[in-house]
Amino acid sequence: MKTLDWNTLFGERARRIQASTIRELLKLTQRPGVLSFAGGLPAPELFPKEEAAAKAAEILRQKGEVALQYGPTEGYFPLRAWVAEWLGVSPEEVLITTGSQQALDLLGKVFLDEGSPVLLEAPSYMGAIQAFRAYGPRFLTVPAGEEGPDLKALEEALNQEYPRFLYLIPSFQNPSGGLMPLEARRRLLEMAMERGLVVVEDDAYRELYFGESRLPSLFELAREAGYPGVIYLSSFSKVLAPGLRVAFVVARPEVILKFTQAKQGVDLHTPVLNQILVHELVKEGFPERLDRIRTTYKAKAQAMLEALDREMPKEVAYTRPKGGMFVWMTLPEGLSAEALFRQALEENVAFVPGGPFFANGGGENTLRLSYATMDRERIQEGIRRLGKAVKGLLATA
Amino acid sequence: MKTLDWNTLFGERARRIQASTIRELLKLTQRPGVLSFAGGLPAPELFPKEEAAAKAAEILRQKGEVALQYGPTEGYFPLRAWVAEWLGVSPEEVLITTGSQQALDLLGKVFLDEGSPVLLEAPSYMGAIQAFRAYGPRFLTVPAGEEGPDLKALEEALNQEYPRFLYLIPSFQNPSGGLMPLEARRRLLEMAMERGLVVVEDDAYRELYFGESRLPSLFELAREAGYPGVIYLSSFSKVLAPGLRVAFVVARPEVILKFTQAKQGVDLHTPVLNQILVHELVKEGFPERLDRIRTTYKAKAQAMLEALDREMPKEVAYTRPKGGMFVWMTLPEGLSAEALFRQALEENVAFVPGGPFFANGGGENTLRLSYATMDRERIQEGIRRLGKAVKGLLATA
Fold first, then answer.
1. Nearest in space to A385 (alpha carbons), one of A29, A4, A121
2. CATH topology of domain A6-48+288-396
3. By CB count within 10 A, which of A58, A133, B100, B147 is most buried?
């Protein structure tokens, strides 16, 4: 009998698919007693448990034959129609996906060939880097900060290359928390329109603004300008519950059609029960729910910033988020966030080192803090511990 | 502003991803009044509506923070452990997937490079062909019938090529309904072991046998023989409800690890609520549920066979399924199942033409009939109509 060496049996692509180092680190943070700012999880106290329980039972009793049966790949029509009305598009422009992560995989599948250039912010969402990487593209990056991507660097990159698409999170970026100002959005869109550049706008955090209102999305600005090249992703993960895995893509019908064909081969369709449940949960009282979520996160962000202002030495820089779930911290050049991670774990506090958010490396002195899952007291205690670890690292540096 | 031609913006792969012709045909069968044997849908009267309603409400009330939160990529541990115990493996050998379709996509992603040979039965499951095709493999096929793949043809193929894997549905094959006898299973396994061939066993219909018991799976036989090269797929779609999209892969831990890494990039994890719900539904009374399902499908198959025996002219051949959901029909050489499809639609009856189940073409005179969703009366009336269409086609041929 021949022995099997799986590493030689797998294809080339399998070598590119690796466990994210972060996920390995995160396992260490599950220890009891650790206050973790590491996860990107939404606040569980905001989940609509009771409402979902009542609605799920009603759905299964009253239309179990639909909720439990195979469904259309495009999604449950009433949910598509609801999203369409919410965003001012038509249902043919909406595809329901099994989380936004699936939309990222479909983007790779449909747009990226081996070696295709694809343009990202540095840092950018790790799950996007991971999804795209499986398709073997060539990553181009532009630096991004509190006001989004560096537009000069972006223009230079676009003058040299024509990427298959530009992937951006303009509002409350993961991991940096950055928010592109309106003027930057307009300028970026101009550049895209001049070049016929496809822009993928990931707007998972769209509703989590702390100010008076939301900035218009690139997608909305592009619609006004008559430009069809923006593909829009968003999700119910941050405004209802991520465990349901219900998200959506909005784009021109010809793009939706190709994504739908790709999705057929990937999971046939998103679970029907979950889609009906989301529809039942959003069709009434959604604005009030969003208000509660915004108020909650704003208070948590405030608690973290107060603690950071009190506990952090002046050598350390951090963002002041205008929305979303994250504070992005930068240690003095030359210091390692992974070294800090180990030191912090000894203080029973955890975060995510920033390195893996950079598609082409770098960012070793950066880290991401999430304030979403903890209450005010634990946030303050966690930052006190982190401050101690930071001071310890600085003292030995 | 540059105009956008999406077909040039998409990658090479997008050209391979096409709508299945069947799905286009199926749309025609949704017309009111049409009796459709076309879909591969399970019988909705077997869905555990009331039980699922009660359990879902309880889960969301009692552990909503878990059911609605992000979960581990490998799956909800108690469900993995339940599957492991059911199949006599360890939980580390089980990955929960978002339907078996996702497992097929992951297989392609992990094993197939552009041009890799992959061996399938002809006919085989269309969803597998579709999932693999996106990765650009070279399909090799061996003819398969009521007793599974032609082992002589299989041996010849394996003497010439070493495919990345052999994909098989040994029990109640979709679409042919075929069942590989025990002796053939043993012989196939010997061939695989001699060559170190990876065998993917898709056992979605494992519990739908009409006889006294189930034949041992290739996976079980391989375990007995100490051969690690069988990857086993199955699902709760046919024994609980497909709309929940909960299925699983069983394989060596090193394979599960690579699939888990690939799944991270694809949808992060299968919806947690759905996994807990499946676990709650199977952990009690599952054997009795399976008995009910078997009895129901057996009676439906019987009803279809009686009608076929009565209505079909002798020129037409069809299988007598020993389990599963399908009868496979072969028209006289030279007749077209697509032509019959059009004629049948005029009689308000539908089925799936067999052509798309053949990865490399052929099978134009074959078709698949599902008896799963209709009751006895409608099955008989549908077959009466189909008989009329067949006789019409034969008369004009």
1. A29
2. Aspartate Aminotransferase, domain 1 (3.90.1150)
3. B100
